[in-house]
Predict the structure.
Amino acid sequence: MPASKAQQAATAHRRAQAIALRLAGMDYQTIAERLDYADRGAASKDIHRALEANLEAESVAAATLRELEVQRLDRMQAAAWAKAAKGDLKAIETVLKVIDRRARLLGLDRPARTEITGADGGPLQVEAVDLAELERLITLSDGTTPDTDTAGRRDARAPRRVRPPRRPAAPRPRPRLARPAPGHLARHPRPRHRMGRPPVGARARHLGPAHHRRPQRRTPRMSDERTAGLPGTTYISTRDIPLDDLTRYPGNPRRGDVDAIRASIRRHGQYRSLVVRDTGDALIVLAGNHTSDALRAEGRATARCEVLTCDDDTARRINLADNKLAELGYYDEEDLATMLAALDGDLDGTGWSQQEVTRLLTVDLPEGFPAFDESIADALNPTTHTCPQCGHTFTNAEAAK
């Protein structure tokens, strides 16, 4: 009975999860246990089948992908061509790299021709060597001196040296291996080698029969690009995840200002990814719980997330560190005042209020400093003036005319 569409979709989803876990460095046994495969062989077979299908699809679309890459290179060259034509050295270097990449992609470069010549570029001279000269060369290679005259020819009176024939090496006796009991192979089938065939030669004789060896479990290798800063934390991928599939961290002690985060999202969008832990059963938000609440309140359907795997203790530490580390910092008030003043009063989405900015930009007078007296200012800069000779009275505005 053919599988239904729901079964096909479930199989494709599990296969995609298996490939993602394999790329993250997990072994087949762990993948089988996490995704409910029958055994590690079923997980390995499913992953290899998916990879072979992808390789076949990629080989079919190779020509289309090559044409797409050529179009991308053409657009890159067109973008840098104007500056390169004006003599911009950086643009010229970029154009040359694009041209070189296109030539290698399309196979336009002529193969390098290698020619072996003799002295001064002339033809290479090949001379025939007679039997006496060949024996002399063999003798020299053995470390002995031949009996030759000044012309390099063997002296006829010298006895001819005959090299004894080499004795063939005795074959090494092969160890006799005990034959398995009847029915043993049926109960324990011979496992296949990881490259598709069992080992042969000296290695097979050293290890013994394949059905007598225990399969070795390989430790997954994790590169530096896929490991986070904490032990036991493995980065999987960064992708957009539906908000309905995310779960808030249980017992998160932090209480954030969701309204301020919503204002920032409306102005700037989601500029920081959520940190999400994949437990196999759920996707739990370790950092960015209030950002996910704000995205839901704004009507967003998905959130950009960095997905990782870790144990419970590491997840708890990541949540505590994300809530606390930002509080340990402080502001350089001079630099902060400069940045806020550059906004020219437009504080939307920054989390700062106008009262906070006014308080920061206002100069606080030291204690005991006298307050500003307007009468003293008027005495220092009067608005009316009287002429000492004629007694005429005039203002500052009249004097400016």
Q: What stands out?
A: The radius of gyration is 42 Å. The chain has a mean pLDDT of 75. The first strand starts at residue 234 and ends at 242.
